[in-house]
Structure to design on (486 residues):
């Protein structure tokens, strides 16, 4: 099943890549508070990008803005020269920090994300995804009764079901045990090997080191560092990133 | 209180022996009210979901109106349907007055706002929870409403039961548009209201017992739906 990393995941829309992603002067906030502050950056379509930063730095907001769930106060987000529209969003998928579990079985949660597929193929694909998510024992269990970790895995499999070219993962391994974390990381690597770009929010430095090719470090709504992972972890240039990493090591 | 005691035992006798008159009245009641609730669900559930999902100018006013109509007085609904269906009314040519169909129409109008308003509330809560996920999937409004109705099926069933409870127990609307004609439009509530005065107390009492039993059943059904929903984490 593995495809070379250079191919995009969605066969239907090979025409143009979503990348480079060019963000300029992106601002989001209310009258009282600026939550994303004049953010400018460029991201290419290769590898796994880790988004790091303290609680409330704006990581989840940034993902929502990129996925078009929030409208920027000002500034632009360009996907290979195009503004986000329904078509571009359909080529992306997102696993939320607190995944939404439909009031249906685990299997039906997956089937729900496969509505574009003909019924005959859907059942087979659901079975594949259930296996990938290692949820064979719980396929018919109401999704909301699954454990936190099982729900996380289900949410990832469900996001993958739509065969996105870009997958946003917002702390997919928070609340997972070490084995499940490991499984999620394998899963993320698999996804990446299928040619899907992954943007991953994580507080787990070890995980970022294991998975990420590059790191975005957010501080108070700004990207204050963007560097290859190795470089970032060896020589963080900003005081905020150093403090964040030191805090992590101190734990 | 010998007399009322004997009426009660006569009533129980009627119920137990399967008195044909009694059961034909019960059957008509159920047919009218169940049909009305089914129609009201057909209109009210999508309407409630639509009002919960789609933003448009005037939505707030419409929701307020709907909530106010939850408690429409049955006699007033009966009066309006009567005026519409009476020979000189706009729908008079249909000749529906004093038929079960007229009663179904009246009860549908009576309970649709109730079901729609209850549905809107639970759909709005659910939509708040699902909205970002559905937008992430790029669902259309139609798909969104369909999914919300399915996922809200337990609370919506409760809303339908509330509608049924109101329909089966009301007398004002069906008596005006149905007329309590024996074997044609006589339902439980109209029979109780009018047979009592004619002296058929046992029949009235028997119907009263059935109505109480139905009310109990509806409540048990609501409770067990809620419990099942909780157990499956579908609440
Ligand atoms: N819809 C909103 N309206 C107002 N403020 C918001 C909204 N969403 C988020 N915020 C605020 O924006 C800031 C950034 O939130 P965000 O969820 O992006 O943080 P985060 O970096 O993901 O943090 P965490 O690591 O805790 O998940 C927070 O202070 C939060 O309170
Ligand atoms: Mg977050």
């Amino acid at each position: 099943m593995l495809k070379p990393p250079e191919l995009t995941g969605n066969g239907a829309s090979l025409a143009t890549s979503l990348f480079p992603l060019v963000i300029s002067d992106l601002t989001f906030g209310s009258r009282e508070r600026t939550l994303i502050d004049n953010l400018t950056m460029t991201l290419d379509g290769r590898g796994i990008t880790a988004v790091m930063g303290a609680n409330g730095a704006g990581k989840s907001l940034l993902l929502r803005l990129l996925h078009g769930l929030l409208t920027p106060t000002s500034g632009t987000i360009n996907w290979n020269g195009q503004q986000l529209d329904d078509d571009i969003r359909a080529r992306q998928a997102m696993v939320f920090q607190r995944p939404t579990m439909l009031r249906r079985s685990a299997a039906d949660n997956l089937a729900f994300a496969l509505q574009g597929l003909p019924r005959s193929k859907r059942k087979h694909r659901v079975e594949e995804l259930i296996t990938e998510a290692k949820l064979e024992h719980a396929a018919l269990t109401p999704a909301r009764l699954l454990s936190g970790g099982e729900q996380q895995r289900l949410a990832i499999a469900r996001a993958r079901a739509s065969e996105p070219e870009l997958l946003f993962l917002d702390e997919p391994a928070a609340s997972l045990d070490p084995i499940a974390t490991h499984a999620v990381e394998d899963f993320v690597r698999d996804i990446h090997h299928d040619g899907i770009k992954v943007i991953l929010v994580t507080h787990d430095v070890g995980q970022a080191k294991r998975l990420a090719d590059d790191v975005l470090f957010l501080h108070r709504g700004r990207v204050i560092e963007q560097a290859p992972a190795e470089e970032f972890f060896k020589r963080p240039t900003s005081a905020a990133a150093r403090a964040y990493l030191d805090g992590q090591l101190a734990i | 209180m010998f007399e009322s005691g004997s009426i009660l035992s006569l009533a129980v006798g009627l119920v137990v022996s399967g008195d044909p008159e009694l059961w034909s009245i019960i059957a008509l009641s159920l047919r009218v009210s169940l049909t009305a609730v089914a129609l009201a669900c057909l209109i009210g559930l999508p309407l409630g979901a639509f009002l919960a999902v789609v933003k448009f100018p005037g939505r707030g006013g419409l929701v307020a109106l709907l909530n106010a109509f939850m408690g429409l007085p049955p006699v007033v609904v009966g009066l309006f349907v009567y005026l519409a269906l009476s020979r000189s009314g706009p729908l008079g040519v249909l000749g529906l007055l004093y038929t079960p169909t007229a009663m179904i129409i009246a009860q549908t109008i009576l309970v649709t706002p109730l079901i729609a308003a209850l549905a809107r509330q639970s759909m709005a809560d659910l939509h708040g929870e699902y909205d970002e996920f559905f937008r992430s999937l790029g669902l259309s409004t139609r798909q969104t409403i369909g999914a919300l109705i399915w996922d809200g099926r337990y609370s919506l069933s409760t809303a339908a039961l509330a509608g049924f409870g109101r329909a089966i127990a009301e007398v004002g609307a069906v008596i005006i548009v149905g007329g309590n004609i024996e074997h044609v439009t006589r339902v439980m509530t109209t029979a109780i209201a009018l047979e009592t005065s004619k002296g058929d107390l046992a029949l009235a009492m028997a119907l009263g017992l059935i109505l109480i039993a139905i009310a109990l059943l509806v409540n048990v059904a609501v409770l067990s739906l809620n419990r099942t929903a909780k157990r499956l984490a579908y609440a």
